[in-house]
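Mods, move this if it's the wrong board.
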Amino acid sequence: MLAAPIPEPLLPRYGETSVRLCPSVRTLDHHAWDGLVSDSNFFNSYRWLTSLEFTFGPQETLAVFGAGGLIAGCPVWKGQPDDALFSPPSLFNGLTGPWEADFLWGGAFRATHNEPVVTAGSRRPSAQRLMLKALQQLATQRDLAGVILPYMPLNHALTLRRSHPEAQIILHTAEAFQPISSGGLQATVSAWRKRYRSRTWSEISAFRNHGNAIEWSALTPELEPVVAKLVTGNRHKYGSQADIAWMSRVLSGQKQAGLHQNILLATARHGDQITAVCVFYRFGKALHPRYFGSDYQHRDNDFRYFMLGFYAPLEFAARQGFSVSHLSISALDAKAKRGGIVTPLAAVVMLRDGPLDPRLVAEHNLAIQQFYLSRYQHYTSTDWELVNTP
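Not the wrong board. Structure tokens:
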């Protein structure tokens, strides 16, 4: 059972700051926290973090206060060495370092997109510096090998690195995002390369010719068990051992956190049958697809994954005023061929025993850059030009 939120500590006097390690993000003010969170940083938003706590237990959160209130924050956790997504030897493969040791991880639990939760404007550098220093001190107190802030867009990682002399940037993967044109599906697809336009219209036609339709709705109590079943089936297909009860527990935690009001559910229907679902979360002007599920007993080759995840949102989201859909890190080849733009993600790392050889880090970063630029060529963001900048 989570504790109820408690009042903020006595704020510092003007010109002063204080740092507090909170046992849960719920001890902080919802609106103060989300006031520091951008539209693209949904998985560090207050309701998402709270839903994780209802599902998996409290997560410690470092908070920095100024005289006016909260100016920076960062959830902390232990990482997951048995999962390649959160294992330093896997993330930094090819770069020699103390990666077998234990680290303090910053950012939301198992999030593959993290941005600094920090104030804007002139106070930003000092708030970031205080936060990084506090993270470093906490890692030292716990006898950990250092701090890892993973899956951070490169431009945000650079602002953090400039705030602390011992922070280093290590590229480790990429994600995709899909700009949403106000002209909807037709306007967006018409701007793509010819072979990808042809593929898209062919897939859309196949979906429709199989007698399918798409509906958008809230996640109702009647739909929750359907979503849990289909998402679990999809996760099993790709190696997850979690059962339906696990997914039901996740959805229950989200409901307790008030997150259901952020959910947009896209369903593919064949007659009276729901053949696939995609769970999106709205945050500001951004969409964040998180869970896909499919009925694999329905064997039509109808491209329902691409319809729900990529094509249908282009029309629906344009009507709703969204400007971007954040597509995460998986299946980048498929996403780049369907309007996704591939952009770099990096870790901000501070090591207890001092920084790695800057030359080796720069070589590693260039190798990652060259891999993605050569693989995705015309479908990359300009952020790749920031690699190894001061």
